[in-house]
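Bumping with the actual sequence this time:
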Amino acid sequence: MPPAPMPKPPVYGGVPVPHPDARPPYAPSAQPTRRRHRPLWLWLIVVAIVIATVIGVVFAVNAMKERSQWEEAIAVSTTEKCLAKELVARYSGITNIGFRGYSYNGMTGATSYYASINGVGTTWRVSGKPGESCSIASFAMDIENLQDSNNGWLAGNRQSGVRLRDKRLDPGKVSLRGVKVTYSLDKRA
């Protein structure tokens, strides 16, 4: 006797309905698939390369930052030495110059150097970034006595003993011997 023919699946609205015992196409097969695992040593190498790269970048950025600060420190001390000679060339009676710091203004393109000359506080503005120039653009100070200031005393303070010279000396030939100069970066060290 021949086997019974398979019944045709019922069709509802033109879509065949699968047999209840049939395995759906998305269901996993009865045979487990072999998954290929990457060896652990390969993952460790990748992690080590990533860590080494991150550490290298951190060291490189830090070294660039330190070099930039070092270059700026040299530029500032060079400008302060030049300003000290310029002050001695312009004024007589200077025995003590103490630089207290500086600030750069990107809007005006000038650097302000804060100093105390024989105890009189002054601010000297120099054109450009620190170290670019030593030409004094302007200076500011609190004037104690306008009459004494007009007579050439620094900030109108006769007690400072600092007076404008009748004839300005050549700053290139001025010596700072006898003048105690404290640079702003000396205090930070």
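The tokens above came from a reply further down the thread. The first strand starts at residue 11 and ends at 12.
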